[in-house]
Design brief:
Distance between the termini: 21 Å
Structural class: alpha/beta
Number of strands: 5
Strand content: 15-25%
Radius of gyration: 14 Å
Mean pLDDT: 83
Low-confidence stretches: none
Order of helices and strands: EHEHEHEHE
Largest sheet: 5 strands, parallel
Helix content: 25-40%
Number of helices: 4
Strand order of the largest sheet: 3-2-1-4-5
Shape: globular
């Protein structure tokens, strides 16, 4: 079984989201899930730390917000490092080889239902926080 976790950390947003997801990942791994993290390469990311815990991390390119780009209206929209549309397309490209997976966990203040709708046919169950 495969669980995919979409989470970021940075100097701006901190590390709490990643730490919470690592706790969940441990429980999933104890229940025979292969856990894959998807993280953007923000300044202050925790990608190496997640890897040191034995998890596969697929990385999204470094933030690339263009001046004037419509990145949405969420209060923490800049934390994503891209528009939700761009982020969801980039994420879909990274997970396409995994086929349908059992669980998609999203822990990100800059992701909402518009991003999640892109994954209706990819994950059997979505958990978003």
């Amino acid at each position: 079984m495969i669980a995919v976790i979409r989470v970021d950390a940075s100097v701006e947003m901190g590390s709490g989201h990643v730490m919470r997801c690592l706790t969940l990942a441990e429980k999933l791994r104890d229940n025979d899930y292969n856990v894959i993290f998807l993280c953007r390469e923000h300044k202050g990311n925790m990608i190496s730390f997640i890897k040191s815990k034995g998890y596969l991390v697929e990385t999204l390119q470094a933030p690339s917000i263009l001046e004037g780009e419509n990145i949405g209206e969420l209060p923490h929209k800049n934390w994503l490092g891209a528009s939700q549309d761009f982020d969801s397309r980039e994420t879909l490209e990274l997970v396409k080889d995994y086929g349908t997976f059992e669980l998609l966990v999203v822990d990100h203040y800059a992701i909402d239902y518009r991003w999640e709708n892109m994954f209706k046919n990819t994950a059997k169950k979505n958990i978003c926080h």
